[in-house]
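Quarterly update, task 2.4: coenzyme A-bound model.
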Amino acid sequence: MKLKAYRLTPDAHPYLIERLRTLYNSAIQFLATHPIELRSREAQAAWWNSTDHDKVTVHLYSPVDNPWEIAAFSMVTDRGSFVTPMFAIAKNYWGKGYGEEIILHYLALAGGKPLRGEQLISNGAICHLNEKLGWQVLMEKEGTQFLFHPNIRQQEVYDEIVRYNDEGSTY
Ligand SMILES: CC(C)(COP(=O)(O)OP(=O)(O)OC[C@H]1O[C@@H](n2cnc3c(N)ncnc32)[C@H](O)[C@@H]1OP(=O)(O)O)[C@@H](O)C(=O)NCCC(=O)NCCS
């Protein structure tokens, strides 16, 4: 495991909600969700206060080898029969395997439910990771691909990969 996940509670410190905002704002150009706008500090706080915390799960992530930093966030929304995820990593932490770990984490958080997602075709890294981790492209429109993930046996695969990473195996 390269990251430690911290779940944000409804009464999370405003500093953490603000860090979530800066991570989100810095990733907007790479996200496929439209329309999307830069969030102000005030809008962010209002959004957090009005969020249904039974349905929306937000985590911040710190590198295990640098626990003082917050490098990424994920947000998982339960929409009944399916789940939608979103996440972003601060640019100075790209290319370290965090993306893969966060995707495996949110698949586990989905609790066995299938997922719906979107990706920008121009975002090569996310297209590569999503395909590698089981996302399927359903359709394509104006530079965005609409995705489905069946999320079968994901918990077992997640546990296996965590064990694999911990043991430093080389198969
Ligand atoms: C996309 C993003 C999540 C990738 O995270 P990351 O930590 O850099 O990803 P990882 O290091 O786990 O893996 C990157 C993989 O993509 C590959 N890759 C990188 N750039 C690529 C490109 N342009 N085309 C194809 N593959 C690419 C790497 O070779 C690596 O492959 P591997 O796992 O098979 O070795 C990160 O760049 C990010 O947060 N971007 C902004 C927000 C975003 O796109 N969020 C996701 C949409 S919800």
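Highlight for this quarter: Helices lie at 14-27, 41-50, 98-109, 124-132, 154-167.
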